[in-house]
# Entry
Amino acid sequence: MLSKRFGKTAVGTVAAAMLMAVAACGGSGSGGTTASEAPATDAASSAPAEGALKVGLAFDVGGRGDKSFNDAAYAGLEKAKTDLKADIKELSPAADGSNRGELLRQLADAGYNPIIGVGFAYGEDIKKAATEYPDIQFAVVDSASNAPNVTGLLFAEEQGSYLAGVAAALKSKTNHVGYVGGVENDLIKKFEAGFVAGVKATNPKTKIDIKYLTPDGDFSGFKAPEKGKVAAEKMYQDGADIVYHASGDSGLGVFQAAAAAKKMAIGVDSDQRQTVKETDLQAVIMTSMIKRVDVGVFEFIKAFQGGAKGGANTVYDLKVDGVGLSTTGGEIDDIMDKIDAAKQKIVSGEITVPAKP
# Structure
């Protein structure tokens, strides 16, 4: 869902940037352009009508209903169905993600084109599928590509997380905050790096607790609410009063811990104050670092419909509001001037946000 502050600007600006970027690099083969749980079913049994815009999407672990990353991608797919009259198909992987490649082949064999893989874990599978199906256009979220028929949809997570760090440092009454990452890999470390940089730039005296739920390669950390809860509980017990998570479905546990401790939390990917149904949990979500996967998915589909080809990587950053903070609930309204100032310094280049801890 869109925050009032970032929604319309992000859609309009990113749309234009994406269309120009993708169209300009059709079939280039390499390079990058900076644009500044429904159950799995047999795709072949419901093949779309001939001549229709046929869009297939394969979710990351957790599938639709995670109220975060996957749901953001589905919002873009739904918009394509509504606005572009697309015939859509969604598939979810096994709990361990072992059948990602098979999902892509199911969609391709059923005539879907383009096909989108949600999450960096699809990188190698899409590379193989793109070779096997050279006439189909693919996109992969969070993974760069140089294949001529693959578009990488990338995000400056570190920049949005920097703003989350600014907000946390300004709002913390104990000068103690925390960060919970789902899986300790390079992508999720980008969130940590930006968050820590934002906190330290705002209040160097602030203590930051950091915990990852699973090691690199074990994606169960994105679907382990109990582990998220335990990690956040420890941080709150130790004095933290705000915890930022980048852990997918495990974030629900972080919110539960915040509610029990009467402390605050920061969501991720979607405006989680709107996507989480429990009212007691909504109340503890101070803000969310929005990652506009919905925009990336929709604009890729729209560009494909317009005749664009892949072969490039499009980066959604603060310059095009591809990342940002939600304002639902008004919890950060009183500090938006400072957040906006930090954003402008990043956009202008005065601040360079680290992408690694």
Remarks:
- Residues 1-49 have pLDDT under 50 and may be disordered.
